[in-house]
Amino acid sequence: MKYEIARRLQNGGGVIVNTSSVAGAKGMARLSTYVASKHSVNGLTKALALEYAELGIRINAVLPGPIETPMMDRVSSVIPGAQQMFIAATAMKRTGKPEEIAHTVVWLLSDEANYVTAAVIPVDGGMLAL
User: Fold this and answer.
1) What are the backbone angles phi and psi of residue 60, rounded to the nearest 5°?
2) Pick the CATH number of 2-123 from 3.40.50.1860, 2.102.10.10, 3.30.420.40, 3.40.50.720
3) What number of other Cβ atoms are within 10 A of residue 35's Cβ?
4) Catalytic pick among 3, 34, 52, 115
5) Starting from the edge strand earliest in sequence, which strands make up the sheet with 120-123, in order?
6) Does pTM surpass 0.85?
7) Is 3 tagged catalytic?
8) For the chain, which residues make up each domain, given as ranges?
9) Which of 8, 10, 25, 50 has the most CB atoms lying inside 10 A of its own CB?
């Protein structure tokens, strides 16, 4: 974000959307390094959003849940049954699609989200609510 913020300051403001994970809002066994890194993304998002809000920069993060990506395939190959476990842990009982994350990012980048900053928004099929 160091370089993104510098560019936005040159342009008089703007929007940054970070990609985190539901792992940044809870603990997950066997994924401690990943969980720690995503908690860091969330904390940095909030702290920098507060520092730069008055300078016209909005900073938010999306927290995807289990999404149909090559990463899900890799996790499933290392942890047998992981995809089924993640699906069972969502209220919607399915994995998400990458475009479902993209829709939230596009909204955050749009003028429709002008009053949204320092938000970490789960896009997780209800995983964090359970």
Assistant:
1) -135, 175
2) 3.40.50.720
3) 19
4) 34
5) 14-19, 57-64, 120-123
6) yes
7) no
8) 2-123
9) 8
